[in-house]
Write a structure and sequence with these properties.
alpha+beta, 6-stranded antiparallel beta barrel, about 270 residues, 2 domains, 2 helices
């Protein structure tokens, strides 16, 4: 041990061309072929181990995905059977209900031709109008979710008022907990809030919010049930507040709309 300490001390104190450095270089040169040979011999074994390890992982992942697919397929079959039974019961009972999305609507795809004139305005123009069956208050969506409603219409163009407009409140419901409230504009651009949700109801972050739809006497909601709006991005419930304080992240990209779908009722009641 003493000899090792002495050699280490001498090695670090001597210049780069010293004797111990020369011995180290010579040893490394002599042993280099053996090191290369060892690496070449070990490489196939490492590659084989990596191949088998990747294969085992791939088989495990494949089994997990197959199980998940089987579960989703079973749920899809159950949902299809349930939907068929519901439709049959509706026909047998001559059930009269609200308009349903999307089967009771015809989607009119069109381009967005104008953006809001200022940050204080929340209207965009579209390249379709009454000639395509579009009327005031028709819902407007994208493939992602709800955008707003038609607020003005001419023969070949129309104006859409976005969800972020302060005057555009939408009755909404939490798909998971059935907590109901009003979706309205938020504090920042392209943000929404969920108001008027009773404290006795339950909200969870990440829950999906959709249009609620309602019919009360002669009054019917503009938006049918089930149009996706967004997810709950935050929710608090303090003792001093009467309602939940919740924020909703919209599914639709309201600040960069390029095209939309106008939902025209297949059976429109005449005014």
């Amino acid at each position: 041990m003493l000899l090792s300490l002495v050699l280490i001390t001498v090695y670090f104190r001597e210049p780069a061309g010293g004797g111990l450095h020369d011995v180290q270089g010579t040893g490394a040169t002599v042993l280099r072929p053996f090191e290369v040979a060892a690496n070449r011999v070990a490489a196939p074994f490492r590659d084989t181990y990596g191949w088998f390890s990747g294969l085992i992982h791939a088989k495990s992942e494949n089994a997990r995905l197959r199980a998940q697919l089987d579960k989703l397929r079973a749920e899809a079959i159950q949902n299809a059977n349930a939907a068929t039974q519901v439709n049959e019961l509706r026909r047998e009972l001559h059930y009269v209900g609200l308009s349903r999305f999307p089967q009771d609507y015809t989607a009119v795809p069109t381009d967005v031709i104008s953006a809001p004139a200022s940050e204080f305005q929340q209207q965009v123009g579209i390249a379709a109008g009454s000639s395509r069956g579009i009327r005031v208050n028709d819902p407007v969506v994208t493939v992602d979710g709800l955008v707003g409603k038609i607020s003005q219409v001419s023969s070949d163009t129309a104006e859409v008022t976005l969800l972020t407009d302060p005057e555009n409140d939408v009755s909404a419901v939490d798909v998971k907990t059935h907590a109901a409230g009003l979706v309205s504009h938020g504090e920042g651009p392209s943000t929404l809030t969920l108001d008027r949700v009773q404290k006795s109801q339950t909200l969870h972050e990440g829950d999906t919010i959709v249009t609620q739809g309602f019919k009360q006497g002669p009054l019917t909601s503009i938006y049918p049930y089930g149009i996706p709006i967004g997810t709950v991005s935050g929710a608090t419930n303090s003792e001093v507040d009467l309602y939940w304080n919740a924020q909703v992240a919209p599914f639709a990209h309201l600040d960069s709309l390029r095209s939309v779908l106008v939902l025209v009722p297949k059976r429109r009641s005449e005014p």
